[in-house]
Specification:
The chain is built from nine helices and no strands. The radius of gyration is 17 Å and the shape is globular. The chain is an all-alpha fold. α2 crosses α6 and α4 crosses α5. It has one domain. Helices cover 79% and strands 0% of the residues.
Length: 171
């Protein structure tokens, strides 16, 4: 239990510290790029809040912060949920590439997939950071509440609970 509390504190500290440097970075950033980050962050926040299993939010935020997180969830299940989550994010990026003028203009001259990945990496990382900053203040109270109230579960989106359906979509 003490390790769990310590990792929660480390996680919260990570995101609160990151908030300061992120705010400085945003002051000099182009508005269109910032808008992309916030759009992706909104998707991430929505998925973590409404669609993914409860345990995944803390796991995801811990992995972004590179803080080891103990979970009772089987490694195989973690990989399935993580894969489904990243697939949702990737689908959204592909959609943005065809719908957002700013992205279309930047991506158009890129012929290699690696170049596109290099364009998206810092944007997605910052979007994940925004999601972590969003959740950081609420992590401790929600985790305490979760420990006190067991059994009440919200509905999980099928993409996170049925790996077969996820595989079928790829074909």
């Amino acid at each position: 239990m003490k390790n769990n509390i310590e990792s929660q504190k480390m996680l919260i500290d990570y995101y609160l510290d990151a908030k300061e440097s992120f705010l400085e970075k945003m002051k000099s950033e182009d508005d269109e790029r910032s808008n992309l980050k916030f759009k992706i962050a909104a998707l991430v926040i929505y998925e973590l809040t409404n669609s993914a299993p409860d345990w995944f939010k803390y796991y995801f935020l811990s992995s972004i912060a590179k803080i080891e997180h103990q979970t009772d969830t089987l490694y195989e299940n973690i990989l399935k949920v993580e894969s489904a989550f990243y697939e949702v994010v990737a689908d959204y990026l592909i959609k943005m590439e065809s719908e957002v003028d700013y992205v279309k203009k930047i991506i158009a001259p890129m012929t290699e997939e690696e170049d596109k990945k290099d364009f998206w990496k810092p944007i997605v990382f910052d979007a994940f950071l925004i999601a972590g900053i969003y959740f950081a203040p609420s992590l401790v109270p929600s985790l305490k509440l979760k420990n006190n109230i067991k059994g009440k579960q919200r509905k999980i989106h099928p993409r996170y609970s049925n790996p077969v359906a996820s595989e079928a979509r790829r074909v």
